[in-house]
Amino acid sequence: MHPILLSLGRFRIYSYGVLIALGGVFSTIFWLKHWKPMGLKKEDDVWLLVNTLILSGFLGGRILYVFQYDPWFGRAFWGDLFSLNRGFCVMGAILSVILGIYLYARFLKLQFLRTLDYVCQAAPLWHFFGRLGCFSAGCCYGIPTSKPWGVKFTNPQSLVEPDFLGIPIHPTQLYEAFGELGIFFILYYFFLRRLETGKIKPGVLSAAYIGGYGVLRYILEFYRGDALWMQSLPMTQVQAFCLLQICIAGIILWRVRHASHSS
Fold first, then answer.
1. Structural domain harbouring 30
2. CA 7: distance to chain centroid?
């Protein structure tokens, strides 16, 4: 694995950042092609959406990360909060992005759930590239395994736990990457087309993604080598957020059903 894609003296380009940017490019192309079905008033509104997603995702992902890994409000907490090279927690990013989209929709007077649907359609594609970046960097690594598909990280610059260097571990980054890619195609072929033809209501696609990813990540947590287990419950901190996501998906479906019955 190659955490550093290009190095010229002190200047470095990291594989993780390049792959995330690539995912953002493909997602933006998707939104630019669908800005009218999304209900946007003009094509330029896509760029405001992209900036909203980047800002809200960064803030939510970083804030939850430092709360998980640093003593609260200590020196390391504030340093990592504003650092440009510290990690993120995708569960925090998902929750903050939902809030960001809500504010975006309110500001532009858009239908929130329809906007959220199109963001959720592209989100697993963006996340696919992000997890490939994690695989390149060595973060989000798995536990040791004797399975023939176990991978060995040998680069000391990778983010794998030093004790795991050189031994086969589960490629959890790839499990999640291709799981997300599968979710993307399921949403595209079984939900998006029905949304655009009016066969399903806005919000159903969002619930399918939020709940589906919650289930996927809950299962993968059992194979993560960096999972943080809760002291009071037999689950990891991320699994608790996964259950919250599944509840949010249920609330969205309830709202969609309630709105359709009211009309």
1. 4-40+115-262
2. 28
